[in-house]
Amino acid sequence: PPFNPAGSRAAAPQGPPVYVDLAYLPGSWSARTVDEEFFRRVRSLCYVVSGDDHLKEGVLRPLLDALLSGKHQWGIDIQVTLIPTFDSLVMHEWYQETHDRQQELGITVLGSNSTVAMQDETFPACKVEF
User: Fold this and answer.
1) How far is Cα 38 from Cα 100, in angstroms, rounded to an integer?
2) Percent of the chain residues past pLDDT 70, beyond the cut
3) So where are the chain's domains?
4) Lower Cβ count inside 10 Å, N or C end of the chain?
5) What pairs with residue 47 in β-bridges?
6) What are the angstrom distances between the C-alpha of 66 and each of 1, 30, 111?
7) What is the pLDDT of residues 94-114, one digit of tens each?
8) Residue range 5-35, pLDDT digits in tens
9) Would you say the C-alpha torsion 34, 36, 42, 46 has a positive or negative sign?
10) What's the whole-number mean pLDDT along residues 75-92?
11) Higher confidence at residue 124 or residue 46?
């Protein structure tokens, strides 16, 4: 096979988009692989964004912007829910700055203000139904 320099990506073969109910977006360094093309081809009713760490913060805004760009290319009206599993200043800023665009594209961002108590542990949670 031809030499592929580190950091470059070979063009993915074209094909029909894949439709799923739930897509879990990678965290940390792997989040760099999630771009506009990913969201154009992997069409989900819900995207879970996790990875509450400093590495995720650096790639979170490009990932969120890629969702807007990719969803814009769908050409069909499907409601999408974005589920962040952590609180983030980057997420809050993106939400405020792109709120009108989110509404135009049918994207809802869930905030988790609920707490679940199990045995001796409590944690924030949200319920998603299909």
Assistant:
1) 23
2) 75
3) 18-124
4) N
5) 23, 82
6) 30, 15, 20
7) 999 999 999 999 999 987 667
8) 555 555 556 789 999 999 998 866 677 788 9
9) positive
10) 87
11) 46
- Asked whether 42 and 23 are in contact (CB, 8 A), the reply is yes
The owner of tokens 């814009």 is 72
pLDDT at 87: 77
Instruction: Say how far apart CA 21 and CA 93 lie, in whole Å.
Output: 27
Characterize the bridge pairing of strands 80-84 and 114-118.
Answer: unpaired
Task: Give the per-residue pLDDT at 6.
Answer: 52
DSSP sequence for 55-73: HHHHHHHHHHHHHHHHHHT
Q: Is the pLDDT of residue 49 over 60?
A: yes
CA dihedral 95, 98, 99, 103 (to 10 degrees): -130
85, two tokens: 């599993």
Whole-angstrom Cα distance, residue 128 to residue 105? 20
| E strand or H helix that includes residue 93 | helix 89-97
The partner residues of 45 in beta bridges, in order of sequence, read: none
Provide the residue type at 124 as one letter.
P
